[in-house]
Amino acid sequence: MKPERLQDQLSSLAGLEDPLRRRLYFFVAEQPEEVGRDQAARARKISRSLAAFHLDKLVEAGLLETSFKRLSNRRGPGAGRPSKLYRRSPRQIDVSLPERRYELAGQLMTSALDAANAGKAREDLRQRAHAYGERLGAEAVAAAKTDAGPEHALTQMAETLREAGFEPRLDEHGGLELLNCPFDAFARTSRDVVCGMNLALIEGVLAGLKARGWTAVLEPAPGRCCVVVRPESKGAER
Could you give phi then psi for residue 81, rounded to 5 degrees? Predict the structure, then answer.
């Protein structure tokens, strides 16, 4: 990595050094929609001006992005200025000292699995991903001292998938969509391989949790993981 890029990456990370700024960043990152200054201030129980200061510092660090939009239907004179809204930046920050190229190695491996004659290797990958996910689910059950019965299934699924880096969010179907793909860099070059792996991993999580009545399905959409979790009756309809 060139020294200039390394310095840029480190500067962005330094933007999260302040504890309040970190809390604001994670609040914005967890929201399904863009966040205004008032909303962020209420969530962290601070003044609007303090929230604005830290949010704009996060923008300067490249960790958040902004847009401007009217939050009411009022138009014309007296409607006021559009509100400044914040969302997480898609920028990826990876710092390794000394420099390592794990992402490059992963991209080369997934590209090899994309080859037409790599069918058995891809099936082996899915089996290993399923086994890993099942282990995650079983460990979550052991820690909770109960399996994911109907009243706890959604919560346990969300917590387990969050720990795995998928950033789950309740969707309009009563299931979970996953706002982050932990393997996004690989998915950009070998989407079929990574989506199949993700599906097997999440199916394994559901099996390990004994989350009856839920199913993982492929439902690609921009800006999130290609897998969603649906109540079984709704998943079967798709």
Answer: -80, 155
